[in-house]
Structures are given as C-alpha cells and as structure tokens.
Amino acid sequence: MKLHMKMASSLLAAVVSTLLICAPVTGTELKIVMESRLGNLDPILSASHQTRDHGYLIYDTLFALDAQQKIHPQMVDSYKVSEDGKVYTFTLRDGLRWHNGAPVTAADVVASIKRWGKRDRMGIALMSITSDVSAADAKAFSLTLSTPSGVILDAFAKPSGVPLFIMPAKVAETPVTEAITDYTGSGPFIFKADEYQPGVKAVYVKNESYVPRKEEPSWFAGRKLAKVDRITRIEMADPLTSLNALNSGEVDYVQNINSDLMPLVNASKVTTARLDQLGYQISYRFNHLQAPFNNKLVRQAALWAIGQQEVMQAQFGAPENYKLCGAVFGCGLPYESDVLAKMVMKPNVEKAKALLKQAGYDGKPVTILHISDIPSLSSVAPVMAQQLRAAGFVVDLQAMDFMTMLSRRANQGPTTEGGWSIFITSWHNTEIQEPLRNFMIVSEGKGGYAGWADVPAIPQLTKAFLTAGSEAERKEITTKIQSIVYDEGVFAPLGSFARISGYSKDVKGVLPAPANIFWNVSKGVP
Amino acid sequence: MFGYIVRRSVMTIPVMGVVALIVFALLHFAPGDPAAIMAGDSASPAQLAEIRARLGLDQPLHIQFFYWLGQLGQGHFGTSLHSHKPVAEMISSRIGPTLSLAVTTMTFSLLVAIPMGVYAAWARGRLSDRLVMMMAVLGFSTPVFVTGYALIYLFSLNAGWFPVQGFTPLATDPVRFLQTATLPTLTLSAVYVALIARITRSSVLEILGEDFIRTARAKGVPEARVVLRHALRNAAVPIVTVAGSGAAFLISGVVVTESVFNIPGLGRLMVESVLARDYPLIQSLMLLLSLIYILINLAVDVLYMVFDPRIRA
C-alpha cells in the first residue's frame, strides 16, 4: 500500500513538474505606470513622450539607433545612396505585416514619411530638399533630394521629438492636424482599442506574427522580441501611490521615482536604475516681442544674472541627480561646445547690473511662467526669479500647471494682456542635439516657436547644417549657432537630469534607452 | 408631497439652463486653449490656428454656445477633444467607482456616527463623551491624504490585507470590491463620521433638554426609547442636512482619495478634463454634478418632511 502511495505521489510529482516545465508561458502580464497620462494616441500629431512610448509599442521604424548612437536598419533590409548623394533607395525586409495580417508595403512607408514630413521639425526640413518620395514596387521605395544631405538616416532613426513611425497608408493619409483613429501598427505589440480607457488604462497584447530582426537588441535597434503576453499601462496620478504599488507588487514597472521618494523604495523587491542615461535638458526662453526682453542687452543681462548651479541644486538636491551643462546642443553629444557657455553657467551679478544700466531698463516687470505641477521643473522658476531680482529686475512669478503654461505661452501680447516674459521647459537630449531638431534655437520671428526670436542667421545656418557635406562642417555650423544663440539671448540651458525608474526584481531584460521600451522584457521566467 | 416633488423637479430645468450658461462662460473666459494643449510644446502659431479651426474654437462664443445647447437638446453630450471618445461613454465608465465610494462611505459613516453621537449626548460630560469628541476632532482635522497614506502603510504595505490601489466593481467581483473599497471608504469616512457624530451629539443634546423629554422620563418611558424614539427623531433634520451636503460633496469632491487610492472616478476625470481644457467633457461633468446637487437637495427636503410634520404642513 505504502509502495503504491509512493509510486502514485512520484507519478503525480512527475506529471506536475512536466506540466510546469512544458506548459507554454501564457498570460504573463506586465503592469506599468508611466510618469504622466497617455492623452493622445497619434504619435505624429503629438510630440508628447507618453504618446511616443505608446508609438514604440505598436509601430516600427525604418531605422533605429543603438546604444552607441549608431544607425541600424530596422524595417529596412538594405539601402543604397546614389553617387551624387541625391537618391536614396530602400528595400523593406521580409516578414513585415500589419496587426491585421496585411503585408507592409512601400506605399505605406511613403504615406507615413509624407505625413511625418508635415509635422516633425526635422521631417519638414527634410521635405524642403526632397523632390520626390515614391514607391517603386511593394517593397522598394526611394527618396530623391534636390540637394545632398548627410542627415537623412539620422532623421529616419531619431528616437524622440516625432519619430518616424510607419503606419498603414490609409491611416497615414489622415490630415496632420487631425488625430488618427485607427491604431493598426506593425510593431511587437498590438493596441487593444476596445480596452482603452483614457485616464485609467491602456492595454497592449503580444503581436504573435511579428518577425524580429536577428541582431541583439540595443536601444531601438535589433531584435524586438515581445516576451510578455500583455502590457497593461495603469494611469496613476500620485507618485507615492505608484511607488507603493511597486513595493507591494501590484505593478511591475514605474517610469519615474522622484528623488525625494527614493528612501521609500523597498530594495529587496525593486530594482532602480537610470535607464535613460542621456536625460533631459532644462532650459528657458525669452519673449522677444515684448518689453523688457525685446531689448538684446536686457536679455544678455538676464543670462548673466541666472546661474545653473543654484537652480539645479534647488531642483534636484544632491549633485548626482543633475549635471551642469552650458552647451546649446547638449553635453556628451556630438555638437557639444563651450563657446560663450560662461554667459549661462555662473551668475555674474555685477555684469548683469551694468548691462541693465546700459540698456536703460525701466523696471518693467519680468513675468515668469512658473510650472508648479511637474516635479522636475517646479523649483526652477522661484530660484531664477530671485537671481533676476538680485541683478535689479522686477519679477512677477506666476504659478500655473503645465497645460495652462502651454496655452498662456501662445499669447504674443504684452504682459498686461496675459502675455509673458520667460517660460521654462525641458527637452530630451535627443530632441536638442542638433539644429534641425532643437526648437529652443528657432528664430523665425512671429511665425516660429514661442518666444518669437527673429535672428535670420540662425535659420540660415540651420539650413546649411541640413546640406553640409561633412561632419566637420556640421560641427563648425553648430558652434557658430551656439555663439549667436547666447549673444542674441535666444534661450539658455540650465543643466540636465536623468530620471530614475523602478521595476520589480521579477522583471528581467529591461533595456536602457532614451525612451521607455518594453520588448525584451520578461516577467517571472528568465 | 408628490405635487411638491413634481414642482421642484420642474424647477430644475431653468436652474440647469443657468448652470449651463455659467459653466460655458467660465470655461471660455478662463485662460487656456485646448488647441495649444493638443498641439503640444512644439506647435507653431499656424498649426495652432489650424487645430482651433478644426475644433470650431475660432467661431464666435455665442455660436459655440448655441451649437452646444442644440447638441445637448438632442441628447448629444459631444466627443472628448483629446481621446475622441463620446463624453457620455467616458462619464458612464467613471461614475460607478465614485457612486460606489459615496454609498459605502455614507452608509458606514451614518452607521457609526449616529450611534456615536447619540451615545456621546446621552453620556454628556463623561470620559466616553470626551473620547468620542476627541476622535471626532481628530478625524475632522486630519487631512484625507494623511489618513489614506497611513491606512495604506498599516494595512496594505505592512499587514498585506488590502491592495494599495485600484478599484473592482461590485458586479465584477464582490470580494475584490470589498478589498479595494475598504481603505478608501475608511479614509473618507473619518471626516464624515466626525462631522455627523458632532452634529448628532449637539442636536440630540438640545432635544434632551426639552420639556417633552422630561415629561417622557417622568412618565417612566424607558431611557432607550426616550433617546432613540423621541430625541433622535426630533434631532434628525440637522443630521439629514449634513449627510445630504456630505453626499453631494462626496460625489464631486473625492479627488484626493481617488488619487491616493488610484480609483478611476469622476473626481479624477474632472481634474484631468480641466487640465486638458477638454471643453465638452468639463461642461457635461459640471452639468451632471449640478444635477446631482439639485437631486440631493430635493431628497433632503423630502426627508425633512418625513421627519418633521410641521414642514409638511
């Protein structure tokens, strides 16, 4: 009897262990919490980082950057450039299919490039020298330029701002001022539109028919292997609640843990890391249309009055949480320069006072739009205000949420009619690393970016950058731009910071990248 | 009473009309531009103008108002500017958690606070009265988010009895509903228990000093009957008033609790829609909340008549 019992239990154990080993890994769900809510589902219409991360889950890109910032083909199999550098011919790789099973065609790519080329700053620049973009057959398409350019693949591979996500032609034909309503992509995950609840959750399921590349994954390049069956993005308004949920195991990944909450992380259950090493540049821009910053000397006085160290320390505390950087196009990036950087890094109150006197500053108030609802920006404006006051400026600090700032910033009128003098924002370093992407240098007058600087030399140099023949030439152009930007007081950087993300110890394969990507991530199983 | 209810119900129509006008005016005169929010940080003036035109925001305000009113008249609440989902669908998906929380909170608060208040009044001046009142002061003066985080720390993170966040509808899983609703209910109840207990105590105390109570006691009516039947019933009007306004406040004002416990309710939807300047959604939400206020006030008035025959007369 005992023997029978022993045999039976051994058999049962064997069956159970076999089942456990052989059973397919089904139903793994990754629960993620991002820093802010997903408000727009069109990654071409909106440059929001939340929308971009949604885009990376469901769409694919023609080219992609790896961790060394080298460009690799992603949807493209091969490409060639004509000898005169004007014609690029691309061939799509095999196995690309939309989520509905239809094959991805060159016509889809062409329509996607055209829509993106009307919205993205780099895309618009690219289209300005493009005479034709067309499909040769189902898998081949070409781009014909009127002037050769060395940044075509950079534009196709850039990971932020508005990345070139490829959509089906009928979706990409949506006017660029109108949001798409069909979310069919060809990426490693499928968006479940029927489960989407704005402000509550968004759900993505594994795209079983996605054919990944063979290369090792690195940033946005290589193999995009969906290793979980389902990703549920849970919207949480409160940073402490999301950390509590991560500590208790209710969620698996939290995009951002504020530095003041770090002591509350349960290190036995949660891994923390700066997954995005490049980080963000914080910067401010003047309103060139209205007093007092319609005067170049007053702008220069403000640049000398404001110092980075004081601002970044007040905002981020410990030095390991931030970096000081006086480069217009970011530090540690290809076009870093220290030309005139001293104007924006350390305050020189005496110089600022002298410039104000020379400018005949009459005490006109400086209205600073103080964003109070974004933890990484909320302490910046009060410190800047104090630095400006120390130099003799009269400052009116107006607190508001980020969305109100966006609305208010569109007002070109004087401060007495709802206008403004300085706004503060942050950009990912991949969005400012060269002139074609960097909005803060835009100097095209009233029709340009908020602040409406009008410095014709900057758009001219930006155009020259687009058509420059060599990297050395591009470096020279960017250095010149930096010199003009600071001399004219177009904008000033305040430094950079990188977010800290947290994820459960149960989660493996999280890839560092300058966006939040979830391929290669597994949960519970190695 | 039926005639009174019908009259009051009809009166809500012009009130709602005025509310609609005020809400529309407030929204459109307040700073903010949904087009700027939709276009994002990098939009040019031309792109903004194009989006404004597409949304109809470039039309004169009175045309926008009458268009909205016309749509409302046909039962169309519009479409969210940002998510492009029908406003009615968005509100209906978010009203459940808020209503559930309001019902559990008010039920729990009334069940706890009224006996507490009655007992405190009956035991006036004793240690137990002081303890009850001390708890009431504590409950009323502790910010909701402090109570919420403290409960999460004790019962979720340490004891592991309840989830930290989220909400499961009663119809989906009753057990899970109780698990997810317990801590938010206790958090919100702290304030209402305090408020209702204090009002109950002072109202019952006042009645206990009346001549008819002395007469009842002199006639030998049992003390429990004196307190519950005679005193509490006559003290009901202020309690109903506080409970009514509390319920109305709960439906519109649970933003903090919904954020702390990540409950996808109307409070959070309102904040999100205001931040995004989602005009159709804000307008409909304001109308709905105004209607709820009016209906709760109507219910309170009816209850006055039930508890106090003099009002009925």
Question: What does this molecule look like?
Answer:
The complex is a heterodimer of chains A (526) and B (313). With 526 residues, chain A is an alpha+beta fold. Chain A has 16 helices and 22 strands. Chain A has a 7-stranded mixed β-sheet with strand order 10-11-12-1-13-20-14, covered by helices on one side. In chain A, strands 17-16-18-15-19 form a 5-stranded mixed β-sheet. In chain A, strand 16, helix 12 and strand 17 form a beta-alpha-beta unit. Chain A is globular and about 70 Å long. The N terminus of chain A is likely disordered. Chain B is mainly alpha-helical and 313 residues long. In chain B, 78% of the residues lie in helices and 0% in strands. Chain B contains 15 helices and no strands. In chain B, helix 1 packs antiparallel against helix 14, helix 8 runs antiparallel to helix 11 and helix 11 runs antiparallel to helix 14. The mean pLDDT of chain B is 87. Chain B: It is a multi-pass membrane protein. Chain B: InterPro entries: BPD_transp_1_N, MetI-like, MetI-like_sf. Chain B: Keywords: Cell membrane, Membrane, Transmembrane, Transmembrane helix, Transport. Chain B: Its main location: membrane. Chain B: This is ABC transporter permease.
Task: Outline the biggest β-sheet of chain B.
Answer: none
**Radius of gyration of chain A from the CA trace?**
25 Å
- Supply the number of helical segments of chain A: 16
Fraction in beta strands of chain B: under 5%
Rounded average pLDDT of chain A: 92
Largest interface: A-B, 47 and 46 residues
Mean pLDDT of chain B: 87
Largest sheet of chain A: 7 strands, mixed
Q: What Rg of chain B is obtained from the alpha carbons, in whole angstroms?
A: 24 Å
Structural class of chain B: mainly alpha
| Ends apart, CA distance between termini of chain B | 10 Å
Q: Can you count the beta strands of chain B?
A: 0
Count the DSSP helices of chain B.
15
Q: Which percent range describes the beta-strand content of chain A?
A: 15-25%
Unreliable residue runs of chain B = none
| Coarse morphology of chain A | globular
The run of helices and strands of chain B is HHHHHHHHHHHHHHH
